[in-house]
Amino acid sequence: MKVYRYPKETEWAEIVRRPHLDTTQLQATVAQVLNDVRTRGDAAVRDYEERFDHVRLQSLAVTDEEMAEAERLVSPELKAALMLAHENILSFHSAQLFHPVRSETRSGVVCTQHSIPIERVGLYIPGGTAPLFSTVLMLATPAKFAGCGEIILCTPPTYRPGGEGPSTALDIHPAILVAARIAGVNCIFKAGGVQAIGAMAYGTETIPKVYKIFGPGNQYVMAAKQQVSVADVAIDMPAGPSEVCVIADDTANPQFVAADLLSQAEHGVDSQVLLITTSESLLDRVGEELALQLEQLPRKAIAAKALENSRFVLVGTLDEAMALSNRYAPEHLILQTDGWQALASKVVNAGSVFLGHYACESAGDYASGTNHTLPTHGYATAYSGVNLDSFCKKITFQHLTAEGIRQIGHAVELMAEAEQLHAHKNAMTVRLRSIEDRK
Predict the structure, then answer these.
(1) Is the pTM of this model over 0.90?
(2) 351 — phi, psi (to 5°)?
(3) Active site residue 331
(4) Most buried by CB count within 10 Å: which residue of 110, 112, 365, 432?
């Protein structure tokens, strides 16, 4: 990783720059696959599953027999862990319940706002080398509590027991299926990549069209989500590779800091980690710990590649560290400092924040209760992570009496006329006249 010592503010733009992702080539491929799925439906999805995931599927839907087999394969200990995480996620997200708003803005003019669940949502869950069953809980749990009527899940059929050879009874990792059952998913389909996004965006003979798509994925999945969001379906947020920023002072434990950096680096070769510290000795010790811990990781090659995108920054003060972090707008921000309370009050841009020496990112990724589906690539400057509101629409209502028309009618006429929208003016004028005629 690159080390910056007491950088000037003019160097910050270079420090906060993410790894460049050239998606120009893949955009055309993504568009072609999406169009094929739109045109041919299930047949296209099955063809791409055979081509990309090397699985020939007779049926896209997961059966009751497969769900039962998954229950058999997942250990009681892992099921208990999934239940604990589900309970904490539900507890935190249920506390976010929106309460209707009512305001009488003028006599006879009553405005209200209500939260209405999205009727049908689609969840995309990556499979492959890291089947993210935790993301099933993070997305389906609040969707269910919000009241979404249909929760559709797509995940690639890439499960291979033992890591190689043909699958036996399942094409999907059993923990994904068990997590889906715990969290209340309605239907699960064996579809991954661009073809899954297309299927949920357009609908096929088997996979229903949804109104909003949630979930992480590789460059192809992210490109597909952005393409379908232009005209066909809403998405949770734009996203890039995962990232973490750790702010640490001389009280931080270098073993903890290194572990936190590596826990993010192992996500993928395009992930990025950033350490900002006021302690030169800590910077050196974290470097030593990184080397030691990296050697023990099964995903060592992935993490090592990610570290090439990463930066260590030595700054003069914690205020400067916070200013740099806010410029970076990290997906995850860890404050491993003695006075983390003061720093927390200065957070402006971040997806999720971890406070103190014991709050590792892994806690939020799995079981603390907060959501791990977060804005990356600097989008934390404007986007929130997934929360209960993500699965709802806010609909406003207004009721006007004759007195309400008298209160605001003339103002509406004047404004509509000034904007040269005469039909708008007339809709109010005819009501004012009707009220006057009844006198």
Answers:
(1) yes
(2) -80, -55
(3) yes
(4) 365
